[in-house]
Design a protein that fits this description.
disordered N terminus
Amino acid sequence: AAFTKIRLFRSLRTVSRLRAPTTKFFCTTRPEPQVADNLLQIGTRRIFDHDHDMYRELCRSFYQDKVVPFEKEWEADGHVSREVWKQAGENGMLGVTVPEEYGGLGLDAKYAAVHWEEQSYSLNSGVGFSLHSEIVCPYLVHYGSEEMKHKYLPKLISGEWIGAIAMTEPGAGSDLQGMRTTAVADGDDYIINGSKTFITNGWHADLVIVCAKTDPTAGAKGISLFAVETSTPGFIKGRKLKKMGMKAQDTAELFFEDMRVPKSALIGKEGKGFPMLMTELPQERLLIAVQGLAAAESCFEITRAYVNERKAFGKPIGQLQTIKHNMAEIKTELAVARAFTDRCIELLNDNKLDSVTASMAKYWVTDLQCATIDKCVQLHGGWGYMWEYPVCRAFVDARVQRIYGGTNEIMKELIGRGI
């Protein structure tokens, strides 16, 4: 039934009100989540409307029916199935903001945010849909040639192909200017040599946005981006990395050995890769914040149910003053974070989200996420340390949030430069 609803939703893409709005819409009749019965309740938050609610219902059903039941299997495999990617594509859940002419739904950024949240509400960290849809696809939409857009975007949106972006190297993480991968012009081609690590979707990927130095002497001005098919000779997928958390998410090393790609693989202009990265990073950082807050809210609700059921000293532990005060602190902190994060979602939707504001959201919310889930584990007692309990898995999954997308220390540096 869920998938029938999703197909129905896809058929509504011709309705103009579902497309990116030309005027700002703000619903004043919807309650904020802190006064609702549940922080995850559908129909709350003034930044959304009924159509967003419908899409949220569809995403929530998809994760409960097609993702959650397979988590243990995927954790053991170290990656999710390709089938779930195709199912997501068939049901219109990939690249929803991509223009219709390239196979997308042409919806506004709030729909993407709904999907980010619903994945985190399910506490599943295995599927790399958000990176694929809202990090990889925008580089093609905003900077790719028409040939590139028509060739790759329909395959990515259908789930037939999986996308990744290769920035981080063994010796270059937050300092992108320090990358050592090179792309040397040779006639009508570039020859790429180097390596990348910690690449989400790297093992499954069919298309990778590769960051490389076309002029190693020019610093940031020497970085270029390339759309590279993983079937290209010289493209080598390394091992799947074993991580503290996110065990079902394939994260891989990539190697490029005299990999020859045509000059048509260049995204935008040579030497303009760094400005492109800086332009797109605010959305990536907000994505991390949005998913982090949603995971924290989900853990709060799981913990609320637990403390109201678990009994000690003859009554539910949720009735103990220390527990009540702890839960009150958590809910208040989440409400404050929700107000700022929702404002950031609005800014993104209006194309007004700047680097400093996105950095604030990323660092503050992911710090709060880790602190909140740590408290939730503590409130579960010994059971919170057991892998079968969602708060346990959420605890280890959360730790990387303060690292990728630029470490939180780098976020503070970016914020501090303008003070």
